[in-house]
Amino acid sequence: MTWIAPEIDRIETVPTGPERPMLQSWLDFHRQTLLAKCAGLGAAQLKQRAVPPSALSLHGLVRHMSEVERGWLRGTAAGQRLGYLYCAEADPNGDFDNVGTADPAADFAVYRQEIRLADAAVAELSLDHRCRHPAGTEYSLRWVYLHLIEEYARHNGHADLLRERVDGRTGD
């Protein structure tokens, strides 16, 4: 039986109130948007590339955002020492380049797990928490949240175009 990406119901964002729940709701909304763009597609469709020579695919975006969640929230913000999931020094684009034989069910499970672990890693940190990126720049957790929301928004635009190319489906 072929694996099909499950349907997703997106949450509503928090429009007023404390800053942390608003930021978290936007991050969760964008996480769910990426999954919604993949919903109902099989492995071959998820691996379909955008336009040669681009390696961009929906499957690759899920793998990439697993790396992003892991790197920014667990690694930078929480200070956990972690290796890459799909990339390496010698293969910095492995998240996108190596989807040909990758198992989407396993990679989607990794993505969901990275989200759970990332949220847990920063749950007790304040938005003013200072952290240092491996490249040396200091950031606040607030900045990291905003950066992740921006990165998801950009990649969800890519996902929208990829999905339209796969089966013509468009939407928000």
Poorly predicted runs are none
| Strand elements, count | 2
Helical amount among residues, as a percent range? 55-70%
Terminal-residue CA separation: 30 Å
Q: What is the CATH architecture assignment?
A: Up-down Bundle
Number of H- or I-type helical stretches: 6
Portion in beta strands = under 5%
CATH topology: Four Helix Bundle (Hemerythrin (Met), subunit A)
Sheet with the most strands?
2 strands, antiparallel
| Helix and strand pattern | HHHHHEEH
Mean pLDDT: 95
Q: State the strand order across the main sheet.
A: 1-2
- Shape field: globular
CATH class designation: Mainly Alpha
CATH homolog superfamily: dinb family like domain
Domain unit count: 1
Assign the structural class, choosing from mainly alpha, mainly beta, alpha/beta, alpha+beta, or little secondary structure: mainly alpha
